[in-house]
Design goal:
By secondary structure, this protein is α+β, with helices and mostly antiparallel strands. It is built from twelve helices and eleven strands. Strands 2-1-11-10-9-6-5 form a seven-stranded antiparallel beta sheet, with helices on both faces. A two-stranded antiparallel sheet has the order 3-4. Strands 7-8 form a two-stranded parallel ribbon. α3 packs antiparallel against α12 and α4 crosses α8. It is globular.
Length: 353
């Protein structure tokens, strides 16, 4: 306690003429609260080192924003594919639909998709499991193709590869089933229009590249093209606890993880297992078939804060958000080798650890 008193004694206080002792106590409390909540700024040299590492590994844009201030910006206004970064925006639409009373994430898909009621495993799948990729539905990566006849119908007819909730199976089919559910719930409005009205416009974004199939169904797993500045708006939503799109309680569902993969929920990857988790490249882990993937105790970087969350897209696309540091970082690339852990250590000045 003496150290605290000594530090207070050295503070240059403003003139407090006319304040009662109780008022002085209030000023002291406010000062201490402000000091406790102060954000440690990143070292500019560390930010530059991370940007240089990104560029050496085919990075094409970089943006770092801390506490609302741009630390470093490189080519951040040039649009680039974000691949699976697309998923988180559709998950936001799902959360918004739940807030609006259009659906419940834990309701069964079969309540809306009648053909699933006769299959014992499909009948148990919930909307949340579709979005968390632990529904057991086969991935069906061919649904990414732009010439698909009817993605939704194909996904709905697809087979179950595992018991609901038992395995993490990352792929487009589950999201296409969700698209059909949302379409039915909207009763005449399209999911795309709902997404734009309820999510994108509130974020200051316009319509996107949807890659519709021949039946007019967009692919929900990929396809969007955004600038780093535009993608950072999603990071701003995280720092604002969901505003202006959803509530804090709704957003926090994105950080739960699942039994099948505690590092993923609703389009977002997390670092909850740090500092003692198994650190490896998430993008590389997604390459083998789902049966050969091991997400046990997975973390992006053991030396990064465990409140770090990220959107991860193929070929090195990244949106990182660290709420405890009020930090948003966007990195876009044209493929190449890239290590999240190495990049984050450079960024946070922890490379020597």
């Amino acid at each position: 306690m003496k150290r605290l008193v000594d530090s207070i004694a050295t503070v240059s206080w403003p003139k407090l003429d006319g304040l009662k002792p109780s008022s002085l106590g209030m000023v002291l409390l406010l000062f201490l609260a402000g000091s406790a909540n102060a954000i440690t700024p990143l070292d500019p040299a560390a930010v530059r080192a991370a940007a240089d590492y990104s560029a050496r590994h085919r990075g094409v844009s970089f943006l770092a924003i801390q506490d609302g201030r741009t630390l470093l910006e490189q080519n951040a206004k040039t649009a680039h594919k974000i691949y699976s970064g697309t998923k988180a925006f559709w998950d936001l639409a799902a959360l918004a639909a739940a807030e609006d009373g259009l659906l419940r994430l834990d309701e069964r898909v079969a309540d809306t998709v009648a053909s699933w009621r006769s299959d014992p495993r499909k009948a148990q799948v919930t909307i949340r499991q579709l979005l968390d990729f632990d529904s057991g539905v086969e991935p069906e990566f061919f649904l990414h193709e732009t010439q698909s006849g009817d993605r939704d119908a194909t996904a709905i007819r697809g087979r179950m590869a595992a018991e609901p909730g038992s395995a993490f199976i990352y792929g487009p089919a589950a999201l296409q089933v969700f698209h059909r559910v949302l379409k039915e719930k909207l009763r005449g409005d399209s999911p795309t229009h709902f997404l734009e009205r309820r999510v994108l416009h509130r974020l200051g974004l316009g319509s996107q590249r949807y890659l519709d199939d021949r039946a007019g169904n967009p692919v929900l797993a990929t396809g969007w093209i955004l600038t780093a500045r535009q993608w950072a708006k999603l990071g701003q939503l995280v720092l604002a606890n969901g505003a202006p799109v959803i509530s804090r309680n709704s957003l926090e569902q994105c950080w739960r993880g699942t039994t099948a993969n505690r590092a993923f929920s609703l389009g977002w990857w997390n670092n909850h297992a740090a500092p003692n988790g198994r650190e490896f490249d998430f993008e590389q882990m997604l390459i083998p078939k789902w049966q050969n993937q091991d997400w046990h105790d997975a973390c992006l970087c053991r030396d990064a804060p465990n409140d770090l969350v990220a959107c991860i897209g193929s070929e090195g696309q990244r949106l990182y958000v660290i709420p405890s540091l009020h930090l948003i970082v966007v990195r876009q690339a044209d493929g190449g080798s890239f290590s999240d852990a190495h990049f984050l250590r450079l960024l946070l000045g922890r490379q020597g650890r």
